[in-house]
UniProtKB/TrEMBL annotation:
<dbReference type="InterPro" id="IPR036691">
    <property type="entry name" value="Endo/exonu/phosph_ase_sf"/>
</dbReference>
<protein>
    <recommendedName>
        <fullName>Endonuclease/exonuclease/phosphatase domain-containing protein</fullName>
    </recommendedName>
</protein>
């Protein structure tokens, strides 16, 4: 069994957020994590990796593509193996990891501007073109909160868990859980499956899935 976590942490420079990330990984027994909007200066990458205290883990990031690192991926080398395919300032492929910050429908929005503009169809068109499907999920629907209260509250579903057909065939029991917000305005995501990577099909043990 492999468990994957994703979190728009909104900054990973502070020791407090590094400690919270370490606790989140331990609490959910995560084997692979993607941290979004980390805002780490390239010179501090190694210090942050050490500060996470995840012994036996390796990390890759897109720090060379932006003045501040936006995405960091880490994995437990005793459980999984992964490699970098390609990357840019807003995405890393190994195979599909991306920070979307977009909604799919009006049902994913509460408060704020209630209009639906033409450009908002772009996200749905992108998902359709990439032949991705939402992973069955539970937990919080609105994954982002603007930090305001009462009539100024704005809620959005900005965090998603998608998979291609190949992964869903390999992991028919995969499920995503959108957890309560902690030290970020975004909810962490934990994906798990009853099957291990070598339990179905011809995938080798410790081979990274296509997500």
């Amino acid at each position: 069994m492999i468990i994957i976590g994703s979190w728009n942490i909104r900054g990973l420079n502070s020791s407090y957020k590094q400690k919270m990330t370490q606790q989140w990984v331990a609490k959910n027994n995560l084997d692979l994590i993607e941290m979004l909007e980390t805002r780490i200066q390239p010179v501090n990458i190694q210090a942050v990796e050490k500060g996470l205290g995840l012994h036996g883990w390796k990390f890759i990031s897109n720090e060379s593509q932006h003045p501040l690192c936006r995405i960091m991926i880490g994995w437990n080398t005793k459980k999984v193996a992964t490699s970098l395919v390609s990357f840019a300032s807003q995405w890393i492929t190994c195979d599909v990891v991306r920070d979307f910050n977009a909604t799919l429908s009006l049902a994913d929005r509460h408060g704020g501007d209630g209009n639906w503009y033409g450009h908002m169809d772009d996200f749905q068109n992108c998902i359709h073109s990439a032949e991705l499907m939402q992973i069955p999920s539970n937990g919080m629907h609105f994954t982002w909160h603007n930090g305001q209260q009462h009539d100024r509250t704005i809620l959005r579903k900005l965090d998603w868990a998608f998979a291609n057909q190949h992964l869903l065939m390999e992991w028919p029991a995969v499920q995503a859980t959108f957890q309560a917000r902690l030290v970020s305005d975004h909810s962490p995501i934990v994906c798990s499956s009853a099957f291990g990577l070598g339990d179905r099909g011809h995938r080798k043990p410790n081979q990274s899935p296509d997500i």
